[in-house]
Amino acid sequence: MKKLKIIVDKCPQNHKCPSVSICPVGALSQKEFEAPTIDYSKCISCGKCSSFCPKKALVLEEVEE
Q1: Domains defined along the chain, listed by start
Q2: Phi first, then psi: what are they for 60, rounded to 5°?
Q3: Fewer C-beta neighbours within 10 Å, C or N terminus of the chain?
Q4: Are the C-beta atoms of 22 and 52 separated by less than 8 Å?
């Protein structure tokens, strides 16, 4: 099983996150220019946001169930 993680140190936090609008289920949100937050009740771990993030701040990590 994979789970989305935000690596805040890689996120520049100086612009609107382009990955927020890419999420097909609306699991990402952003307050002003802060790093985005993940609503795990919505996230389907599809990887679209992590593929789209130019700074690779969004990653899908393998986790044990």
Answers
A1: 2-62 (3.30.70.20)
A2: -95, 120
A3: C
A4: yes
Side chain identity at residue 61, one-letter code: E
Cβ atoms < 10 Å from Cβ of 13: 13
Which tokens belong to 44? 């389907």
Could you tell me the two tokens for 52?
């789209």
pTM of the model: 0.91
Classify residue 26 by its DSSP letter. -
- Indicate if the alpha-carbon torsion angle 26, 42, 48, 20 is positive or negative: positive
Residue 39, token pair as written in the block = 């609503």
pLDDT category, 56, cuts 50, 70, 90? very high
Is residue 65 pLDDT above 80, yes or no?
no
pLDDT in tens, 5-35: 999 999 999 999 999 999 999 999 999 999 9
